[in-house]
Leucine rich repeat containing 29
Amino acid sequence: MAELLPPEMLTYILSFLPLSDQKEASLVSRAWYHAAQNALREDASLFSLIPVLGPSLRVLDLSSCVALTNRTLQAICTYLTQLSVLRLAWCKELQDWGLLGLREPSEEPVQGSQPHQELEHQASGPKDPSSQPQGPSLLMLQALQELDLTACSKLTDTSLAKVLQFPQLRQLSLSLLPALTNKGLVAVARGCPSLERLALSHCSLLSDEGWAQAAHSWPRLQHLNLSSCCQLTEQTLDTIGRACKQIQMLDVAMCSGISMAAVRRFQAQLPQVTCIHSRFVGGADLTLTL
């Protein structure tokens, strides 16, 4: 059935796959191989366009560009240093070495490789990136005020703890990052003290201990999304209530360790809070809008 699709449509469909899956798809047939190659060229086109955009660009939204490569991210960090908004949600191929400005160890072309091996080579990355940023790292974008890394699921504390150091950053999303731990949270808190909006939903490794160390760094925090952070308890609510006096909106939906009684105590502690999303907290289906 897929063979009957126009080549452009097949390329469009494959462009939504991670590079590793594009590699597998390229083995199906000659048509699929060419479609996978074209999907990769779309990232190459963006790569070639970035230097032309120049330092005057302020907002760049590449959300859902799932084939975006680490090489292209490094080009962004090199040429677009005046960006104030960078959205990379669902760019699932981004890895620690890309954010740290490192070279991919297997960058050299493999002699005698077959076409499908070329795709596999482009999908590979280093297993143990350096802990220190080098080259065109995300640190070069010091003008950032908004950064969205939602669902960039290959990122870990290895890079996040080193490159998320933006004194001017106001809005940050690290939702759906399964490898983000308390160590990364504390490092981000120290590196981004001006945050007003923070999304950490579905970061299941975060716990009360991490928030006990991080919360005091965010006195300006107004909007906080902690939905589906399953290890958090009312202790985190107490910590946030003491440290984040400017909070206005809090989402603790699907946080099974936080009861409705704890939510009400939090509300009493901070009467300026206008909305608390607490769906299924303590077995209830409630959103408190005040």
About this structure: The chain has two domains: 1-153, 170-290.
